[in-house]
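TICKET #2291
ISSUE: user wants both folds in one file
ATTACHMENT 1:
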Amino acid sequence: MKVIVRTPHHESELEAVPKTTGREVFQTMCRSLGIQESWYFGLMYRGADNEEIWIDKSKKTLKDLQKVLANFHFRVKYYPEEVAEELIENITIEYFFLQVKSAILKDEIYCPADTCVLLASYSLQAKYGDYNKDEINEDAVKKQTLLPERVIKQHKLEAGEWEKNIVSMWEKHRGMDKEDTMLEYLKLAQNLEMYGVSYFPIKNKKGTDVLLGVTALGLNIYKPEDRLNPTVSFPWSEIKNLKYKGIKFVIKPSDKNAKDFVIFTSGEKISKHILQLGVGNHELYVRRRKPDTPEVAKMKEKANEMRKNKLVIRQKYNTERIAREEAERRETMYKQQLEQMRAEMERKQANLLEAERTIRRLQEQLDDLKRSKEELEQQRGELQQMMERLEQSKHLEEEEKQKLEEEIRAKHEEVRRINEEVQRKDEETRRLQEEVEEARLREEEFRRQQEEEARRREEEERRREEERRQREIEEANRTEHELETLPDDANTTLPEVVQVNESLKEQLKNLQNQLNETRTSDESNLDRIHRINLLEGRDKYKTLADIRRGNTLRRVEMFENM
């Protein structure tokens, strides 16, 4: 069966048997893309009501999913608390960057206009490297979507003025390589209130319509008109158990004095989706507060070593040319892992085609040799007949005898030439046979190495999956999940807002003034809420800290009284 999976980079086409499960397709994609930090990602498709249906841990087979085989998406499913500290490998950072950038440009994540311009400048640095007016095609910049449509409509600025502001900031990123640029983009995007939040319409016991936000830090409750500022929040450290029955979803707090936190969803599928996201986010929340596994520690050690080397190189070579060459080299090196499986498949295919061509040449050579031998036999037969005629024609005239002898000499010469040709083709055939044998041996050796490598990968995969396998198989059908308890010394403090680079602060302030002067009256509800937050000195984490004050019982009551 043909399966099409869309990623932020491209569209992948896979061939799989009908009994292949969703989980197996997801694991294949991770291996194909070279992604080791697979715990952040998932495989999903859109349901009839446009809801997200995740199948990365599903036991459902492709036979059960025939209607959506061309609509799978490989996407970020879970977000870290702090991207700079938690994302390890460049390929993971790149996939986060591409997905978050897309969400901001589509206005799925609200981003104020000045931050949109700053993020656009980072996206250009990530794509092109240092700004160079002589090398960068201005038309290429103009034709790109760099800002959300909402931002452009809300300000009386010409396209050239937007581009001037973006390029002006882009010039300040000189010397930043692609990985650092994408991380800086994500660190600033992480400050945005809607970043990493999955919203679900729910009701409380009174029937009040509210939104549930599932995040890396916990569960938040929002008023429908305000997706930026949660009203009530429950960190994962306060939640002990999640379960649902139909549309009734029950959250059991860790605090024995607090009653269960009950919400009502719009359908059982939504309840199941909330459970899956809640369990997955809680597992990562606990995992971040425990010592790294040997696998993660090794990945971090390798990544840190690579970053140290990059820093040494940057300090040693301080010219624009060498910096650009180093960035290109690193980009190529990082992409090699992504392309490894595809290159192996192409190499095997090329070897197979080459072997087929050699075999065809050998067959043609054998056919040619056969024809040459037949011709040789024919010429020898004719020569024999001519010799017999000579023997029998002693009574012929001298002139006729000389003519016959001349023909015999010519035939001798032809037989000698054909015999040499046969010997040459015999030698060529032996050589081709040796080539075929060598190619066969090489292919067998390559196949053996591939099989050994595949076995090693499979054994490693089995080792990693063994402890989780049974739990994952059962999880798809579970309606209740007891959450793991946090370690006693776990740090549950909230992250802090990442500040803008000092070299950009003055420029960003001037841009804010320009945008305030050119703003139209077309202000959205979220723009208004963001403006009020700025005036009150509030940010994402200050808001969470404020609404998490007090015990769990009081916050549950606040939710029920909404």
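ATTACHMENT 2:
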Amino acid sequence: MWRKLPHRAWLPRVSWRQDLCFFSSVPPQPVPPQPVPPLAHTLQGYLKALEPLLPPEELSHTRRMVQEFSRRGGLGQKLQEGLEKRARHTKNWIADWWVQWAYLESRQPLPVHWNPAISLPRRDYNDWRSQLLFASKLIAAVLDFKAIVKSGQLPGEYMRGKPLCKELYPLLFSSCRIPGPKHDYIAHYGRSRRSPTHITVVRNYQFFQLEVYNSDGSRMTEGQIHSQLLRIRSQSWKTDKEPMGILTSEHRHTWGEAYNRLLKDKLNQDSVRAIETGLFNLCLDSPVMRISDEKYASRKAAQVLHGGGTYSNSGNRWFDKTLQFVVGEDGSWGILYEQATAEGPPIATLLHHILEYCEKPEPKRAPLVPLPTPKKLYFNIGREIKWDIEQAKMNLDILINDLDVNVFNFRRFGKDLLKAHKLSPNSFIQVALQLAYYRVHNELCPTCDIVSQRMFKGGRTDVIRSPTNQSLRFILAFDDPSVTREAKLELFREAVEAYSSLTNAALKGHGIDRHMLGLKLQAIHEGLSIPKIFMDTAYGLATHWKLRTGQMPANTDSVMCFGPLVPDGYAVCYNPQADHVHFSITAFNCCEETHAETLANTLKDALCELQELLQPAV
């Protein structure tokens, strides 16, 4: 039931990207182990990635450090041999280290900093009755997906002709992150002898344990689920004064201490365990405050991401839970997930199944059997817990008020135009983002775009570093009136191609960042001092991700949203469709240099100018 993962250090939250992923009914081929990249390849790539970011004298210093680290018989070679040995004796040489290091040892709050949200197109309703009808359909769809996963009938997934690992799918359900004083744990309850048969429904800050299987083991029908949701609504018409879910939004150390205090009481312990063991959470939210149509998309995404604040729907969340489906009374809906167990591609597959299922009629009628009353989860709230809640409310509102969210739909063109010009849509957008950032800040910055490693057994993600010498040369030439259009177009194609080459290398398991991390953690594992190459100021600069990006390709007009990795940075996510692209951009208001709307407007202009470069007016 409990799975404790190994040792670490710290790293920023990541997301994902998924290129050319499709399903096949053909039996899946075996997935190979993730390779340890050659040491020379990684160090050469690291230096190359620093070239557009560092002045020559700093780069020369770093080159000397890299040469010392990589010399024959030196520390780098020793650590490389250690990683290769680890790869021979583990399922995946980096995945467990990565989860522990990047997620479980981070002490930052989960909302904004870690848990990504996906906001989907608004449903065509605006009342609580339709809200419950759609929520019933959604629950039935997720249970149907779970049954497919459990039966082993999930179609094989392929990316660029290679089969993808499906190990994360069973872990989506009945999973929860558990806070600890120094690091967190992941609890998977779905593999226990008596697998959970309930979900948790939250409305007006009140939690309910809802059984979704009948006594004979059959899944409840939509009609049965709907009648139970009506019961829950009738029992939760008034907002609870104490939003227990707010506690899960705290700094992880603070929440860990409050968690231990909370669980000293038997009633609290039973209620918390019911939430943690449930298949997933359903959050029935009040309407998103609507100021204008233009800002509604941003507010809708923010609502899924953090709940809108302690006077809105933030009390309807349990941020530690792996899966939380948010259904608003105004037709807004989406999913919020915790990344230690879940990642974007499996979530996208789940959402695709939900959308397809929702188009189908009710498959069967509800049997005429009495249903148990949904169990309301109660908490004993003493003086200490009440104080913990008040502090958490204050801290979450500060965090939410500090986050600037800008969601927009770029309608001038989409991926079809780019493919017609034989350009990778993702590579095109990455170069456009570099151009937009440079125009706002007059420099390139460390930028990470996350690439999937699911083509390897147990694989998670790696990073593609977007700034290249080719993109810098193009950016400097693009705004220079003395450079001809033909020269600019040639430089642009070189920049796009350079990014595509980095993507190809990463998809072969030859990305540089997870390998660098592995070398560092291998030194710690062997009881050695952290190598000087990782103490270099250049390494600190190179991993201060001021621009964090993620592609979320989907078959619907959805958009992913998450917070920046660093206080003076941005987070940008995009979903390219055939003739338009959805974007979300976030920044922190506390930083005077960053502004989400400014970057958004600059990006729109850059995209339009790049279209004109490809298709000059006659």
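RESOLUTION: both attachments delivered.
EXTRA DETAIL ON ATTACHMENT 2: The chain has 18 helices and 20 strands.
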